[in-house]
């Protein structure tokens, strides 16, 4: 007698499993221009928007995108970020832990990239705190810095969406 087959049925449609905080790769992005009109960036359609202290934040579940444009006379460098931004982040972000400071290139040009972890604000209903991974991009042009911060739970697979969002920034 033949042993029973151990192969499972196959599907023509792959199942996508999104752990908490994963942004689907097919998320629709729409253009947004923050107050002042110096930059435009694509953000996920349908995310909640809030404004606080000149920064605009888009949130959905466990992820957020914050954009703020501020005057900065000279282009930021990794050393500048270490000496100026990191101390501010360490003082303002709960359980701040620096991962790296470096440079990379996006469609808008070279940027300083600060990667760090922080604790999220407690959930309003459950009080649960999530450990967030944050990518903070410092774009610069003609005396202005566009600070783009992308955050989601540590371990979430947001590489592709964050690449699309950070590549979408354009100076107007």
Strand order of the largest sheet: 3-4-5-9-8-7-6
Count of individual helical segments: 2
Distance between the termini: 73 Å
- Summing up helix and strand content along with how strands pair, one would put the structural category as mainly beta
Output mean pLDDT. Answer: 89
Estimate what percentage of residues fall within beta strands.
35-45%
Radius of gyration: 19 Å
Gross morphology: globular
Low-confidence segments, ≥5 residues, pLDDT <50?
2-18
Descriptive notes:
This protein is mainly beta. Helix content is 15%, strand content 43%. It contains 2 helices and 10 strands; from the N terminus they run βββββαββββαβ. A 7-stranded antiparallel β-sheet has the order 3-4-5-9-8-7-6. The chain has a 3-stranded antiparallel β-sheet with strand order 1-2-10. The radius of gyration is 19 Å and the shape is globular. 22% of the residues are buried.
